[in-house]
Amino acid sequence: MQIGTSLTHFLIESQRAHKAASGDFTLLMNDIVSACKVISSYVNKGNLIGILGSAESENIQGETQKKLDVISNDVFTNTLMQGGQVAGLASEEMDDVYHLPATAQRGKYLCVYDPLDGSSNIDVNVTVGTIFSVLHAPEGVANPAEAEFLQPGTEQVAAGYCIYGPSTIMVLTTGDGVNGFTLDKDIGEFMLTHPNITIPEDTSEFAINMSNQRFWDAPVKRYIDECLIGKEGPRGRDFNMRWVASMVAEVHRILTRGGIFMYPIDSKHRERGGKLRLMYEANPMSMIVEQAGGLSITGPDRIMSLAPQKLHQRVPVILGSKNEVQRVWDYHKA
Ligand code: AHM
Ligand code: MG
């Protein structure tokens, strides 16, 4: 589709292309888009309306919630609940599955989300974002429970993120490539600015929290050591490093110019299974990255093939440019 097409028009065209489509998915996407516009507006206003800083609460992972975590979760949850296209919701910021009120209309989808990823960056005015994943709700189950949400990443109907940076950009895949839409605040519409995003297969840029170096396993140590030796070592070239500590920002950079992002297993996070969440972060980002021609693994395994064990499950994540991720995968097999 042409650059400058609105996301609304893009969704209608995609619906027309699928003759059997009922329009429900388009309506769900409209709700997601509306929620992200509201969150974007809150993030932009920040302390003009006194919403930076911590809330007096912890989420189920024992992390102190930011005021904007709580606000974003409420906006996303309420918008989708009222939209009537979901049968249930689950969020990184809620302890359990969110059951719809008895009076609410039920739809045929489930949505799982991290309403504001990269919270540690909010107060310092660095990029954050919303990550979401859409799944089919099982037929005939009025109130889906945790078990109904535990579908592997390969079952996702759609995945996306909205990044709140210098521009607000919605990146979306429905399993047919990846497209990016920039919010034109003057007219309140997301416009297609990044059609058919593909990740360069090769890269000389890695992203990892180097302060965890002493906790890593051997394959990751080997990979990063070789990048650091640069030209003089087996890689024969120098590497650059970035770490924003906002997964949305790292993935967006990788979609734009290539790179490899790693939050691998380490002895600090081994008991919890990793740092990032499978359902809210790893699966949706893996679908986007694979659809853009990249790879996404835990180290030994493809992330999207994992059978989730629990809603808030954590996993190691290594994703990005195909040839670099493949190399790390090979090091794990060696
Ligand atoms: P959050 O969902 O609580 O914001 O945590 C996830 C974030 C990711 O966006 C980012 O990659 C990672 O945590 C950064 O972790 P660290 O602070 O250990 O570098
Ligand atoms: Mg997060």
UniProtKB/TrEMBL annotation:
Protein's recorded name: Fructose-1,6-bisphosphatase class 1
Pathway this chain belongs to: Carbohydrate biosynthesis
GO CC aspect terms: cytosol
Residue span(s) of domain Fructose-1-6-bisphosphatase class I N-terminal: 6-195
InterPro entries: FBPase_C_dom (IPR044015), FBPase_class-1 (IPR000146), FBPase_N (IPR033391), FBPtase (IPR028343)
Binding annotation for substrate: D117, G118, S119, S120, N209, K275
Protein residues bound to Mg(2+) 2: D114, D117, E281
Enzyme Commission identifier(s): 3.1.3.11
Family per record: Belongs to the FBPase class 1 family.
Keywords: Carbohydrate metabolism, Cytoplasm, Hydrolase, Magnesium, Metal-binding
Top-rank taxon, per record: Bacteria
Sequence intervals crossing the membrane: none
Location relative to the cell: Cytoplasm
EC top class named in words: hydrolase
CDD domains reported for this sequence: FBPase
Binding-site residues for Mg(2+) 1, renumbered to this chain: E92, D114, L116
MF GO annotations: fructose 1,6-bisphosphate 1-phosphatase activity; magnesium ion binding
The species this protein was found in: Halothiobacillus diazotrophicus
Cofactors: Mg(2+)
One Gene Ontology term from the biological process aspect of the record: fructose 6-phosphate metabolic process
Reaction(s) catalysed (UniProt annotation): beta-D-fructose 1,6-bisphosphate + H2O = beta-D-fructose 6-phosphate + phosphate
Primary localization: cytoplasm
Annotated ranges, domain Fructose-1-6-bisphosphatase class 1 C-terminal: 199-332
Cofactor note: Binds 2 magnesium ions per subunit.
Assembly with partners or alone: Homotetramer.
